[in-house]
Amino acid sequence: MTCLPTFHAKLCSCSRGSYFDTALSSSPAALPSLKAFAENDRILFGTDFPFAPADITASFTTKLDAYEGLTADEHRAISHGNAWTLFPRLAVTDASKEAVKTGNVIE
Predict the structure, then answer these.
(1) What's the domain count of the chain?
(2) Which entry of 28, 50, 55, 93 is 20 to 30 Å from 10 by CA?
(3) What pLDDT, in 10s, does the model give residues 80-98?
(4) Is 65 part of any domain?
């Protein structure tokens, strides 16, 4: 089985450019593995809603928020920062905050 280490290295190398989410995976057992494998800027908040029941989704979200293995910056990045980088037009801006306050649509 000499090809297995080579295959594993190639798989890991190719997968590192992928994005990963925390949907139903924010337990103290799963998060360290995710952090060890994925770059911090490739981890996104996820819930699997509506396929996962709301109480289960809330439980995993609470676990993610309470997880002490992440810095405050990593929590912010996973919560919304990485998604805003990936989808910049969805990022909160001063204009979008004002639109929410006034009810105006942003073009």
Answers:
(1) 1
(2) 28
(3) 999 999 998 888 877 766 6
(4) yes
Phi/psi region, residue 48 (left: phi>0; alpha: psi -120 to 50; beta: rest), is: left
The CA distance from 29 to 22, in Å, is 12
Structure tokens at 91: 């990022």
Determine the structural domain holding residue 76 and report its residue range.
18-102
Do the beta carbons of residue 75 and residue 69 sit within 8 Å? no
Contacts (Cβ under 8 Å, ≥6 apart) of 32: 69
Say what the pTM is: 0.74
Query: Distance between CA atoms of 86 and 77, rounded to whole angstroms?
Result: 11
Amino acid identity of residue 3, one-letter, is C
